[in-house]
């Protein structure tokens, strides 16, 4: 299939376009749609969702440069064909062939995706790609690129949070984004009058984005309008919203019966007046480009070409079960390195500041994005203070919207495969971003390794305070400010979750995490930001831990998915305590106190990376000690700690001489604000020591 010429200049007048080539692309889209609809009806594959009525999207893409980015949705077959010229791709995905360019047969048909052609991976979740598209626009603007991104969505999608996030990203930062609402009047059976009040164009203009209504049933009008909007965006005048009026010529999908919700009259009127292929054909005749007889001939040519392609596709391999775990997650291959810089005693906050500065030093495109991070204080906890001072412009303030923060950074990372950092002030507030985080973690799998979303998501977790409860004071937590958070991230396939316990680990792990192609949740415990090394009840610093408060200058990395083994005492270990974050310090204090009174040795296993976790080290520690305690500061419901406990029961059962113990925070929503209740809510060294005694007596 030949592809149309594209506009490459920034003129406000439509560039010369090969109208016949554009028409041919639209006919090919319609012919593909017709063929796949029939094949679905014949039971050749389970589902199809089509493009009939949306073919003028080819005209939109014809008005772009081939380096411009696309974020499409399932009606955009014509846009796919216009950009790629690939008629095989849609067939390969419909028939689930490993040769499929969008997900190697893994995703439903019509979910357009191609890194090579700069088409972001379409999600089934309506509009879920919106904030990622905003992130791409953010990165383009940051690099002063002349490229832009086109984001498309149906009228139903306009009502989603994701769409509204993109609108805000584009408006606040004046991003090079063309937002296209393909308004066919329906969201399955719901008319578009339910999706927004008033007038969409007026609404967009009121919010700071230039907008126009365009007749999407007219390919030439669509092309000319797109050229104007592209020119507007490239000349730095900001984003544009195009309200593209269309008609839906088929039912919503192969699962919907059109007659149950649309009247015969409305369907007939839509078919007669809103078919962009027929309308364009009439225009081509009127202009003398084609004759009536050409239409059927061109359709037949397209159909024959498609059937030849289909025959080939049917010979191609289908997925096999053995690949089901391919491309779930990317863990960077650690390259052994010895920290060479001079060591200084530092807090965890100091170490995080240093790590972020190292990343900025090494990657000119690195930035931290979040609420207040660009202020002289460097965010509410001061983690970006060094960036603000030493790397102006790299700590960037965001609007107060966590989904917006995550989407912006995730989309930025997709452009060049480099992780940038999103800061969420308190993990409790990640919840509006939950879908975006899940999508980010799914992209690698969904696209069969084609796309990835490198993303460092740093957030303060657990209660505040000035150190572990045992060695300082309680207080500083509260509802909305003190969730542990690991249960939210460790349950997401494709996500890496890290929770450091010491300044040394925080810096080395953060630097290594930035090398991952999978998104990373980096959980920073508020109690550890400024804490000192743990002490026993006599006030003696625990030697096994103290060294990790000395942090080398410069760049060094520590391996992910590698637990740290801390031995307290001498001789064979009698108990292994599996923990992470603040609980490592509590466990060390408990172990030291127990050893002080009873002798022997206890091993504290600091998981450091929670998901995936270091199964080998956990199994070895249990094998050696024959007794185990899992300690988590999560609530005792379905938690990550319960997962570890269950894994030990399942995999280490015959190594156990006593009941595998489990200690957690209480079954309450969160730690209360006042000190007595907060102390009662969390596990402390006292709880752990009591459990050690109980276990040893069993
Ligand atoms: C977030 C989300 N909610 C619900 C659905 C189920 N669903 C799939 S398509 C669709 C309608 C979308 O309508 P619109 O955005 O107008 O696009 P159209 O199909 O009309 O082109 C719905 C509700 C979904 N996929 N994602």
Question: Quick gist of this model?
Answer:
This protein has 698 residues and is of the alpha/beta class. It has 23 helices and 21 strands. α19 links the parallel β17 (573-579) and β18 (601-606).
Description:
- With 698 residues, this protein is an alpha/beta fold.
- The chain folds into three domains: 305 residues, Rossmann fold (3-Layer(aba) Sandwich), CATH 3.40.50; 186 residues, 3-Layer(aba) Sandwich (Rossmann fold), CATH 3.40.50; 135 residues, Rossmann fold (3-Layer(aba) Sandwich).
- The protein is built from 23 helices and 21 strands.
- Helix 13 links the parallel strand 9 and strand 10.
- Helix 12 runs parallel beside helix 17.
- The longest helix has 24 residues.
- The structure holds thiamine diphosphate.
- The site of thiamine diphosphate has 13 residues, from strand 4.
């Amino acid at each position: 299939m030949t592809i149309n010429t594209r506009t490459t200049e920034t003129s406000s007048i439509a560039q010369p376009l090969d109208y016949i080539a554009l028409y041919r692309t639209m006919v090919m889209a319609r012919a593909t749609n017709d063929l796949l609809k029939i094949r679905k009806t014949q039971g050749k594959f389970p589902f199809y969702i089509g493009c009939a009525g949306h073919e003028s999207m080819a005209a939109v893409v014809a008005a772009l440069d081939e380096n411009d980015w696309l974020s499409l949705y399932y009606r955009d077959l014509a846009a796919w064909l216009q950009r790629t010229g690939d008629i095989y791709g849609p067939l390969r995905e419909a028939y689930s062939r490993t040769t499929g360019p969008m997900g190697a047969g893994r995703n439903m048909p019509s979910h357009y995706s191609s890194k090579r052609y700069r088409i972001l991976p379409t999600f089934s979740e309506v509009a879920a790609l919106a904030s990622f598209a905003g992130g791409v626009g953010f990165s383009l603007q940051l690099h002063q690129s002349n490229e832009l991104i086109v984001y498309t969505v149906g009228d139903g999608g306009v009502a989603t949070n994701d769409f509204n996030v993109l609108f805000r990203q584009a408006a606040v930062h004046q991003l090079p984004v063309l937002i296209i609402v393909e308004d066919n009047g329906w969201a399955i059976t719901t008319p578009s009058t339910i999706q927004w009040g008033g007038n969409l164009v007026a609404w967009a203009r009121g919010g700071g984005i230039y907008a126009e209504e365009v007749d999407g049933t007219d390919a030439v009008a669509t092309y000319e309008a797109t050229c104007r909007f592209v020119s507007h965006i490239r000349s730095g005048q900001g984003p544009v919203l195009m309200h593209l009026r269309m008609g839906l010529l088929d039912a919503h999908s192969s699962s919907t019966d059109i007659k149950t919700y649309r009247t015969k009259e409305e369907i007939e009127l839509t078919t007669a007046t809103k078919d962009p292929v027929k309308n364009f054909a009439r225009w081509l005749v009127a202009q003398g480009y084609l004759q009536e007889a050409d239409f059927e001939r061109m359709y037949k040519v397209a159909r024959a070409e498609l059937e030849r392609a289909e025959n080939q596709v049917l010979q191609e391999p289908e997925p096999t079960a053995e690949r089901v775990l391919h491309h779930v997650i990317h863990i960077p291959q650690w390259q052994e390195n010895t920290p060479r810089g001079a060591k200084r005693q530092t807090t965890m906050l100091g170490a995080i500041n240093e790590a972020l500065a190292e990343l900025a030093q090494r990657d000119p495109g690195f930035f931290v994005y979040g609420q207040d991070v660009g202020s002289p204080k460097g965010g509410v906890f001061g983690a970006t203070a060094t960036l603000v001072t030493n790397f102006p412009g790299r700590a960037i303030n965001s609007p107060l919207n966590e989904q917006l923060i995550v989407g912006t950074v995730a989309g930025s990372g997709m452009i060049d495969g480099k992780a940038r950092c999103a800061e969420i002030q308190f993990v409790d507030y990640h919840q509006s971003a939950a879908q975006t985080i899940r999508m980010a973690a799914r992209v690698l799998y969904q696209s069969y390794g084609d796309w990835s979303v490198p993303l460092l998501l740093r957030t303060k977790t657990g209660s505040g305070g000035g150190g572990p409860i045992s060695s300082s004071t309680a207080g500083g937590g509260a509802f909305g400010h003190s969730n542990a958070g690991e249960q939210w991230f460790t349950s997401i396939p494709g996500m890496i979750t890290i929770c450091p316990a010491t300044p040394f680990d925080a810096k080395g792990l953060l630097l290594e995490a930035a090398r991952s192609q999978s998104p990373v949740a980096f959980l920073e415990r508020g109690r550890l930001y400024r804490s000192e090394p743990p002490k026993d009840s006599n006030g003696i610093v625990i030697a096994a831990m103290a060294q990790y408060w000395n942090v080398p200058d410069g760049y060094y990395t520590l391996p992910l998915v590698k637990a740290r083994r801390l031995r307290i005492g001498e001789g064979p270990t009698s108990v292994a305590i599996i923990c992470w974050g603040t609980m490592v310090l509590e466990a060390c204090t408990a172990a030291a106190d127990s050893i002080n009174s009873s002798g022997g040795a206890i091993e504290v296993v600091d998981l450091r990376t929670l998901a995936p976790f270091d199964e080998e080290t956990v199994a070895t520690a249990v094998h050696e000690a024959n007794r185990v305690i899992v300690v988590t500061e999560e609530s005792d419901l379905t938690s990550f700690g319960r997962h570890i406990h269950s894994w030990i029961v399942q995999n280490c059962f015959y190594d156990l001489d006593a009941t595998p113990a489990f200690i957690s925070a209480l079954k309450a929503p969160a730690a209360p604000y006042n000190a007595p209740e907060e102390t009662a809510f969390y596990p402390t060294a006292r709880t752990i020591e009591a459990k050690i005694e109980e276990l040893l007596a069993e």
